[in-house]
């Protein structure tokens, strides 16, 4: 299974923010939309990603408030990206090694979407469930053995 297949199932809703937006506004969007990340775009280019991890760090540093900073100050400005043709197992490996929960999907300089650890886990579970059903059907329809008498 490839990343492009996950994006097809997931749909094409994508939430973005500019780097100069107040962090408080970004946090409000994340809370209202019940999402864990916002892609940071500037002049049509991906310049970073803001996830709940960065927000938690800000809250910790500022004693429980987000303060008056902008997204640019706190975003991950070098996010790991993937292409639509990467296999899901490679994405799983990348996410685990880099401790990344959200990966922007890029086709050259075009942002196609974001896949989350949840999206990958769901896709893997669905693929395994399908394989299990097929194997069980195959076993259930296994031809009876015939015995040959000499």
UniProtKB/TrEMBL annotation:
PROSITE patterns cross-referenced by the UniProt entry: CBS (PS51371)
Annotated Pfam families: CBS
Coiled-coil segments: none
Keywords: CBS domain
Domain CBS: 8-66, 75-130
SUPFAM superfamilies reported in the protein's UniProt record: CBS-domain pair
Highest taxon above the source species: Bacteria
Name listed for the protein in its UniProt record: CBS domain-containing protein
Organism: Massilia cavernae
